[in-house]
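User: Batch of two.

Assistant: Item 1 of 2:
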Amino acid sequence: MAPRANWKGFLRLSLVTCPVALYPATSDTEKVSFNQINRKTGHRIKYLKVDAETGDEVTSEDIVKGYKVDTDTYIEVTKDELDDIALDSTHTIDIDEFVPKADIDNRYLIRPYYLVPDGKVGHDAYAVIRETIRSMDKVAIGRVVLTNREHIIALEPLESGLMGTLLRYPYEVRSETEYFDEIQDVKLTRDMLDLAKHIVEKKSGAFEPELFEDHYETALIDLINKKRSGAPITAKAAPKSGGNIINLMDALKKSIANEKDAAPAAKVAKETAKAKKPKKRVAGQREMLLPIAGKGGKDAAAKTATREATRETSKKADKPVRAPARAKKAG
């Protein structure tokens, strides 16, 4: 099932308007997540809202928002007061200006969305706006109201559609000055730079995100599968230290030597990953996690057979397959 749009409204460039829907372009819901449980009972932990001073539980109707002035003083702000100042969504993304993409500092980028035509009408207007942005080789800057707050959004063509990226306001971006002030100004020799450039050239290649693998996520799923199937869990051996190399030139030379040794294996691994054809059907994460073995009256032989079958399933899986993103209600 395709995810629901986070927002629906209109995209407007001067007098040109078309109905559009906004969908999140990324998702973290496919990652393995954990609940906190009571080790003694196996039950989930439930959190209660209590008064920090009295320790008494507080009901939802007695909880309001407060802005902290000092240690023990808060300015109470009610829901009605917040509703009064909330921005009413015009359900329109107004394009205010066009700027070169290079002018947008990466620190201002928050998250990407897909902006698509909503319904069967308005595709012509959508195409006009998209191709206008594409032909000018610029990014359109507009405004959109999400959850009562106005956000700046940058729109740019992506294939046959538009990608919108929410941008931070200046007060949300920290200055680098306070962090970089104490960096020493050192002079590097030409030999050092040449060796470093040689390493970069050896490691240079095309950006191919489909070859990336989340090794921690893979290890998590493998751990869960082993525990569910009753397989023994062995502790990972501590990594061997390569020794401290104090001399920078020696470190660069050793890096080049290591790169020469690792290059053939890395090339084979990359070619093997490219050769794998994607499956027509993508399984969800839950299918990568093995089923729970039977409980109660099943005998040992049945349990053993189940474990063997699940182990074989685990061996055949190259890496975890992601589940489809959870549906979200339209805003």
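Item 2 of 2:
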Amino acid sequence: MHATLDDLSTVALDGVLDDAERRLGRQLRRDDGHFSKCNGTAGFGTDEATWVRIAWRRTAEIDSQAWTGYEAAAAIEGVPRPEWSAAAVWTDDARGVVWRADEMTLVEDGALSATGDITTDPGLPEQWWADLQTALTNLAAHSTDRVSMSQAHLTRRIHEVYGKEIDTTITDWACAHGDLGYANLCGPGLSIIDWESWGMGPVGWDAACLWSASLTVPALAERVQAMFSDILSTRSGKLSRLLLCANVERAFRRIGKKGPLTDTMAERATSLIRELQ
């Protein structure tokens, strides 16, 4: 039963949406919902021109950090994003899950990719890029005890794929969004959405995520690398990129089928390992 909840567009949600409306005091525009195909979330506009995001967790597996990411992000300054205002949480004994509905301001400009994949340059204005650079600088300066990417996870993944002779020690840390790709970036006016995973990570982690997401459009990847060259060229920036290469290689080894970036990331990994040594 849980597996079907990974794509809420395939689930009879009327009862869940009734609960969300009653608890938040909002009417959802149910005919215009936006559904993730893999992470069990859905979003709806409301009669008050706000946005409500619906998510679930198995009752015994609630990650308190991810569960409260939106409300915790309310303390971050200087980063354009939806402004969180309220949440409702309730149990669903029949499904063995807990539902959460977060209400926030509605972002006028949509996400640059519905799936995270990007095949053409979105042609973003220069102001968008300048605003992104400022936003990530401001975010990096934010103080938090949340963790987006830990030393242990980075080390485990890189050593699993490339061997334990690589020194993966990160000495420079900063606050990061943690999932900075084109599904979580809006334009042409910049807004950064989906704040479940934010917290401390290696310096350059966000830039590395955006670099990885851009590699299917080489000119776009070159722009990202040039814009964030100061941090992507640091040891932590290189290790961040190597981790993303390791994730792609690990997926290939697991399923035995190449993805769009398997060969590209393998080439990048060879170069990064040489530089790190």
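The chain has a mean pLDDT of 95.
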